[in-house]
Amino acid sequence: MSGYLTTHVLDTARGCPAPGIRIALYRVSGNSHRKIAEAVTNDDGRTDAPILAQADFQTGTYELIFFAGDYLRATGQVEGETLFLDEVPIRFGMADAEAHYHVPLLLSPYGMSTYRGS
Hints:
118 residues, 6% helix, mainly beta, four-stranded antiparallel sheet, four-stranded mixed sheet
């Protein structure tokens, strides 16, 4: 079995999944970023399929960018042009070619966290 990458977003301020958040995945090499996937969270705050499937998996450095500002505005949690959290980048490495990597985002208007999930 080859490795793969999944993600999801939980709205910790409202205590629920965060649907409708656009997510972009980049492969990072030095100062180069190459977009390799894009997805939107479903009603469960997850993507419908792995954001990086087994067939496309390679070890290396990656960055997920969560476009959280649109969601936070749409849910009435923030307003205005300049937000404390708008585009949320998470850079991480995947070294095990056989592993399932899960990188969730726990989000509120003024804080976020992540971890390597299962």
